Amino acid sequence: MILSIASGKGGTGKTSVVVNMALSLRNIQLLDCDVEEPNAHILLHPKTNETKTVYISTPLVNEEKCDHCGKCAEFCQYNALFVTSEEVLFFPELCHSCGGCAIVCPKDAIREKNVEIGVINLGMADGVELVYGELNVGEPMAVPVIKEVKKQIKNEKTVIIDSPPGTSCPVIESVCGSDYCILVSEPTPFGLHDLKIMVQVLEELNIPFGVIINRAGIGDRKIYDFCEEKGISILLEIPFQRKIAELYSRGIPFIAEMPEWKRKFQLLMDDIKGRMKS
Amino acid sequence: MEEEVSVTHGRYKGAYEKLKQIAVVSGKGGTGKTTITASFAVLVRDIVIADCDVDAPDLHMLLHPQIMKTQEFKGPRLAAIDRTKCTECGLCKDSCRFDAINDNLRIDPFSCEGCGVCVIVCPEKAISLQERISGYAFVSKTKYGIMSHARLNPGEANSGKLVTLVRHNARQIAGEENRDLILIDGPPGIGCPVIASVTGVDAGLIVTEPTMSGIHDLDRALQLLNHFNILPLVCINTHDINRKNTEKIVKFCEKNKVEVAGKIPFDPIATEAMVAGKTIVEHSPENMVSREIEATWKRVLSALNRE
After folding, report:
1. B200 touches chain A (CB under 8 A)
2. Domains in chain B, start-ordered, CATH in brackets?
3. What are the residue boundaries of the structural domains of chain A, listed by start?
4. B contact residues 63-92, partner A, Cβ 8 Å cutoff
5. Furthest-apart CA pair in chain B: how many Å?
6. Across the interface, which of A11, A75, A205 has its CB nearest the CB of B29?
7. How far is CA B47 from CA B12, B40, B43, B179, B203, in A?
8. Which percentage of chain A shows pLDDT scores above 70?
9. Do B29 and A9 touch (CB under 8 A)?
10. What CATH fold (topology level) applies to the domain A2-54+125-277?
């Protein structure tokens, strides 16, 4: 089973939920797909067993063969190639690695070379298998790194995916293919606004979902009204407690000092499994 | 030195020889970028405000823009297969690097990046790229200045390109209205929409929090600004939640020769202001949070003027 955790708004507590949940359950593989700012490893302190480099392929033009016909630039939807009468200019930050330029080149002058854009790390922490990706700073495209993280999915495990904030392509890539998605939000206007956008995304992707309200007690009740109106299940509430915030700030999963929460996360998992059967 | 820069209405005007742009970014989400940006906008007034978090824009909930102009945003085009011509050879599926064509040769709109490879490999010329509207860009009036913002449709790709449009609109307004400052509310992360939000700005204010995650993400956000040669400044929000970590951030900044432009305390009143749909500086101008935000802004301006 693949369970993803998303939020829309950043900083609502996705990683905290993911890590505490993983540590409360057995046979877990945790994938941190927030490759721009991965944080699960900061709370888990894994022992890394393996690091794999993630490459994308970008065009390499053989100037001896090239006659500057411009077909590659004409084809490229992302304006990553610009052809003058003397040379081909390539803008790697715009390239999506589709490979089309090499196909259209009539002189067979373009081949592709691999360029490193990040890494994925595989490790273990307290019985949890952790895979986390890291996009190199300055690289724009997170999706290829997320894809590499997701290639590590082990079907025999219960897989929990920590997705990045936002509602666009990196989020879609992270949650796609999950059996269930938990949306972590907070009872504030920003939390609700961004939750609504994520609800639309999941409805379009046809992924069943429920909501965890983190920092319950702050803000207002509008998020509850929204969930009730839309018939969205509130799976769990985590109250706003100074102790939880303080433990998080020190990089400590709160179940370490509040073991009563272990049971709550186990029940949450049972609840989700039950919902998926029905 | 700080006193030389006034933040009161209109008086900063003419302070610069050319247009200045400041981006508020964070790395980690939820550190308070929007709360702080909105307060800056209220304090300074008559600037151009750009909400570049186009996936999950929140600034409008505090600044209440009245939309004056709406513009369609055409994102990447989408492949479409003409079933009457398709012979189901499967070449398109095999050539697609984005796994956007399934076994039944249907296009998955969420995976398709509109690259056009399927179009050129199809022997029957059965595939074409269709334009689609991926979102909207807006130019709006607020009490505090003109705002350029946008809304990417849920799940759409290419937020970087929409960010570029928002910034283009902001610069255009600044030119037309003779404004010399653009204040940008950036998205979280360090990837494409963030890069699009910070390229060419004069300073980037990284809003962080004193948590282990906050420190980790600050480091990466700082590397990003350095990578693009942008003057970095740091603001530690809710600094009193963990003073030891705040101390670590201050030392980290000293070591990296980055100015800590502000330390803002934790106060639930920040959430109350948000619930009331107001910036904290309007909701509780005398509160320490408001005062520290104002002090932070002064330091940001001083740093900008030193450049």
Report:
1. no
2. 2-74+135-306 (3.40.50.300), 76-131 (3.30.70.20)
3. 2-54+125-277, 63-108
4. 76-77
5. 74
6. A11
7. 10, 10, 10, 6, 16
8. 100
9. yes
10. Rossmann fold (3.40.50)
Task: Answer for the pair B301, B12: CB distance below 8 angstroms, yes or no.
Answer: yes
Spell out which residues of chain A touch residue B198, defining contact as CB-CB under 8 Å.
none
Mutate to test the interface with A, among B115, B153, B163 (most CBs of A within 10 A): B115
Instruction: Give A237-259 pLDDT, tens digit per residue.
Output: 999 999 999 999 999 999 999 99
The two most distant CA atoms of chain A are separated, in Å, by 71
Predicted confidence (pLDDT) at residue B13 exceeds the cutoff of 60: no
B48 close to B170: Cβ distance less than 8 angstroms? yes
Q: Which tens digits make up the pLDDT trace of B205-237? A: 999 999 999 999 999 999 999 999 999 999 999
Contacts of residue A55 in chain B, CB cutoff 8 Å? none
B30 → closest Cβ in A9, A103, A142 = A9
pLDDT recorded at residue B12? 46
Distance from CA of A77 to the nearest CA of B (A): 6
Local confidence band at B6 (pLDDT 50, 70, 90 cut-offs): very low
In this prediction, residue B7 has a pLDDT band, given cuts at 50, 70 and 90, of: very low
A63-108 CATH pick, 3.20.20.70, 3.30.70.20, 3.30.70.100, 1.10.1140.10: 3.30.70.20
Contacts of A135 in chain B (CB under 8 A): 190-191
Question: Which chain B positions have a beta carbon within 8 Å of A148's beta carbon?
Answer: none
| A104 part of contact set with chain B, CB < 8 Å | yes
> Which amino acid does the sequence have at B246?
T
**What average pLDDT does the structure give for chain A?**
96
Q: What is the pLDDT of residues B258-288, one digit of tens each?
A: 999 999 999 999 999 999 999 999 999 999 9
Which of B26, B187, B212 is the closest to A166 by Cβ?
A: B187
Identify residue A108 by its one-letter amino acid code: D
Interface contact flag, A188 B241, Cβ < 8 Å:
no
Chain B window 139-158: which residues touch A at a Cβ cutoff of 8 Å?
Answer: 152, 154-158
Determine, for residues B27 and A135 on separate chains, whether the beta-carbon distance falls below 8 Å. Answer: no
Of B28, B242, B245, the CB nearest to A11: B28
Burial code (b: 16+ CB inside 10 Å, e: under 16) for A55-71 equals ebbbbebeeeebebeeb
3-state SS string for B12-33: CCCCCCCCEEEEEECCCCCCCH
Nearest CA distance, A134 vs chain B (angstrom): 10
Give pLDDT tens digits for B244-253. 999 999 999 9
